[in-house]
């Protein structure tokens, strides 16, 4: 471990020696009495980061409230509150610091009691790694709070997790017990998506496998806990993302200086870079970067700086300066995961304050999609979220705010929910990315467990024999302005003249009725398509042909659509037109609104359109007219024996 004599002899030399080291922030968590505080006390003690007066105070306190007889209770180094020492538990998040020859560390010691889960979320939010302790004793092992903490660690995108199976001295250093707990945890964590998961048997009290390998566990072939912590790649969550700079205040000490002050949330910026101010979308060039130590040419993640720009932008607290090459979404409706921290439950429809990137915005939880059973990861339907419950919700704000998905950027994808009356923090939230939100929408279970599936006494073949054609869904997809509805209307007329029953389902028309509650976020577009698929399924079950017109920019969404209507043929028809052509058509001025930032996630402008890889029919509508396209669709229906030749 790191020798710290220089602290006493020459503090300046000590600081100079260690200022270049990187820093790993890690969380310790687990259930009550798993040994978190003892572990941290052991790390501090063995790294010689405890002064003599501190050790004397701990020794004195140990005689009064300690649990180790005449030995110092190292847990008291961390359990600083009187209530913690009296109860022998951790209540608040305690931050401690130590270093080795290779690295400096910041430890966040999270409370184990369920009622303090909110404190654990606070402590985990800025950590690169987590140590989850599990008590090895037979009646302990994996407990509900262990699972809850593991799920939260995964949800907060902490990629490096060490499972420290503690108190091995109380199970005679049994390899079998270690392997049993390890296998149980691996089975539980199969769907957590933790990138780097490691296991180590320890005794925090005795010091086994903390700094030196234990002679009592020769069967363990891995490194010590300190070795594992030194080996973890630190600080990735702020450096791998695009430049994000939430403005905390505008600095105007005189009439000839205007600077934008804040902390770089992610990425880096250089003098000469062009930045875009959100939500105004105006741009300017960086002319200066001021820090506490003077002017710099570059600023990186987590630095507190003041930026000066070539033009005075209408930018204030809560706005965000970003790279013009990587602009986050402006959203007023989005899906998020919430960890509810209040006895007053979360309910849909109630207004709250949402603090996102230094800006407070009024909004409401429009719907609670589900809560998560931490034991099974099952999504349970619920009208509300109670204390310490975790769930996915949809949120609508009164105006658009720049934000990223939490998995892309932990700084700009996190927010808190505040009570408008008493200003109490109610919840911590994480903005979901498209794939996560969409998957949950399509795979959600019905709220009613009493519903049953109706099985028609008339078979599809009987209907086809009677009508002279087969039921089918035709899914017309493409950019806005590619001609989907116009083509479907032409086909509706032609098939009607052949005495074939059709129903046109247009994504825009659904928004006037069935989908009037939906906006234009990626999640809302997906839900619009899902509801359209359900309508198409009912039409085809009655023997009709459903002509479905949707932008449907996601390949996964299109696959989900086909899965819902798979009782009958579903033909994917892609209207392939360049975005420039679609913008020229644009009868409803949607592209104009999208370029102004008035419509978020607009395919072809502010979000990607995934072209179908294997459509049943591709129609270049910039070269073919409506009649020619309709001819090709009719030919396809004949080739697939859906309508007679």
Write the layout of secondary structure elements.
Blueprint: H1 5-9, H2 11-18, E1 23-30, H3 36-46, H4 52-65, H5 82-87, E2 94-99, E3 104-109, H6 117-124, E4 129-135, H7 144-155, E5 160-166, H8 175-188, E6 196-201, H9 225-231, E7 244-246, E8 249-251, E9 259-263, E10 268-270, E11 274-278, E12 282-291, E13 294-296, E14 298-300, E15 304-309, E16 320-323, E17 329-340, E18 346-347, E19 351-356, E20 359-372, E21 379-380, E22 384-385, E23 390-403, E24 414-418, E25 425-431, H10 434-443, H11 460-467, E26 472-477, H12 484-497, E27 502-506, H13 507-510, H14 522-541, E28 545-550, H15 555-564, E29 570-575, H16 579-585, H17 590-595, E30 617-619, H18 626-639
Parallel strand pairs: 1-3, 1-4, 4-5, 5-6, 26-28, 26-29, 27-28, 29-30
Antiparallel strand pairs: 2-3, 7-16, 8-9, 9-15, 10-14, 11-12, 11-16, 12-13, 12-15, 17-23, 17-25, 18-22, 19-20, 19-24, 20-21, 20-23, 24-25
Helix pairs in contact: 10-14, 12-18, 14-15
Helical region count?
18
Q: What gross morphology would you assign?
A: globular
Task: Quickly name the level 1 CATH class of the largest domain.
Answer: Alpha Beta
The radius of gyration is 30 Å
CATH homologous superfamily of the largest domain - what is it? P-loop containing nucleotide triphosphate hydrolases
CATH topology of the largest domain: Rossmann fold
Average pLDDT over all residues: 82
List the uncertain runs.
Answer: 80-92
Please provide the count of β strands: 30
What percentage of residues falls in helices of 4 or more residues? 25-40%
Give the tally of structural domains: 4
Percent of residues in β-strands? 25-35%
Architecture (CATH level 2) name of the largest domain: 3-Layer(aba) Sandwich
| Distance from first to last alpha carbon | 83 Å
Structural class: alpha+beta
Largest sheet: 8 strands, antiparallel
């Amino acid at each position: 471990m790191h020798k710290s004599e220089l602290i006493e002899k020459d503090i300046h030399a000590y600081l100079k020696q260690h200022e270049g080291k990187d820093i790993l922030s890690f969380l310790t968590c687990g259930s009550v009495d798993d040994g978190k505080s003892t572990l941290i006390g052991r790390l501090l003690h063995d790294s010689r980061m405890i002064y003599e007066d501190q050790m004397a105070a701990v020794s004195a306190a140990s005689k009064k409230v300690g649990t180790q007889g005449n030995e110092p209770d190292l847990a008291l180094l961390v359990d600083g509150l009187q209530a913690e020492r009296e109860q022998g538990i951790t209540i608040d998040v305690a931050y401690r610091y130590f270093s080795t020859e290779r690295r400096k560390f910041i430890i966040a010691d999270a409370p184990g009691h369920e009622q303090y889960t909110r404190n654990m979320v606070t402590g985990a939010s800025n950590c690169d790694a987590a140590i989850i302790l599990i008590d090895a004793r037979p009646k302990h092992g994996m407990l509900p709070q262990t699972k809850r903490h593991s799920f939260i660690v995964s949800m907060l995108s902490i990629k490096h997790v060490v499972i420290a199976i503690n108190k091995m001295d109380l199970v005679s250093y049994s390899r079998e017990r270690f392997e049993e707990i390890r296998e149980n945890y691996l089975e539980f964590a199969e769907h957590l998506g933790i990138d780097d998961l490691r296991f180590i048997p320890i005794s925090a009290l005795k010091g086994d496998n903390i700094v030196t390998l234990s002679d009592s566990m020769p069967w363990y072939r891995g490194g010590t806990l300190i070795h594992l912590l030194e080996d973890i790649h630190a600080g990735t969550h702020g450096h791998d993302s695009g430049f994000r700079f939430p403005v905390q205040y505008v600095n105007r000490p005189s009439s000839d200086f205007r600077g934008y002050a804040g902390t770089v949330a992610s990425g880096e910026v250089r003098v000469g870079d062009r930045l875009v101010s959100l939500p105004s979308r105006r741009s300017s060039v960086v002319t200066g970067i001021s820090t506490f130590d003077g002017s710099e040419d570059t600023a990186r993640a987590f630095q507190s700086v003041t930026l000066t720009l070539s033009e005075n932008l209408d930018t204030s607290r809560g706005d965000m300066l970003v790279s013009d090459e990587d602009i986050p979404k402006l959203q007023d409706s989005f899906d998020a995961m919430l960890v509810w921290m209040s006895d007053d439950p979360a309910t849909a429809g109630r207004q709250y304050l949402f603090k996102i990137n230094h800006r407070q915005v009024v909004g409401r939880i429009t719907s609670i999609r589900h809560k998560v059973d931490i034991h099974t990861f099952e999504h349970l339907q619920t009208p509300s979220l109670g204390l310490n419950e975790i769930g996915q919700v949809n949120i609508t704000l009164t105006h658009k705010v720049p934000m990223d998905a939490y998995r892309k950027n932990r700084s700009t994808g996190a927010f808190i929910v505040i009570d408008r009356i008493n200003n109490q923090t109610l919840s911590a939230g994480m903005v979901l990315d498209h794939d996560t939100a969409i998957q949950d929408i399509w795979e959600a279970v019905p709220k009613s467990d009493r519903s049953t599936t109706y099985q028609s006494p008339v078979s599809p073949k009987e209907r086809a024999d009677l009508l002279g054609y087969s039921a089918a869904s035709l899914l017309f997809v493409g950019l806005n302005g590619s001609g989907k509805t116009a083509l479907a209307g032409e086909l509706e007329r032609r098939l009607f003249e052949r005495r074939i029953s059709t129903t046109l389902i247009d994504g825009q028309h659904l928004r006037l009725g069935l989908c009037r509650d939906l906006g234009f976020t990626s999640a809302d577009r997906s839900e619009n398509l899902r509801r359209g698929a359900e309508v198409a399924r009912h039409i085809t079950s009655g023997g009709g042909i459903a002509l479905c017109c949707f932008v449907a920019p996601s390949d996964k969404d299109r696959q989900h659509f086909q899965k819902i209507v798979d009782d009958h043929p579903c033909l994917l028809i892609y209207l392939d037109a360049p975005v420039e052509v679609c913008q020229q058509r644009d009868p409803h001025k949607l592209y104009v609104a999208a370029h102004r930032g008035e419509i978020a996630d607009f395919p072809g402008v502010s979000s990607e359109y995934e072209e179908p890889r294997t459509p049943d029919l591709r129609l270049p509508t910039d070269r073919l007219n409506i009649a020619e396209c309709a001819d090709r669709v009719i030919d396809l229906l004949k080739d697939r024996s859906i309508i007679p030749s």
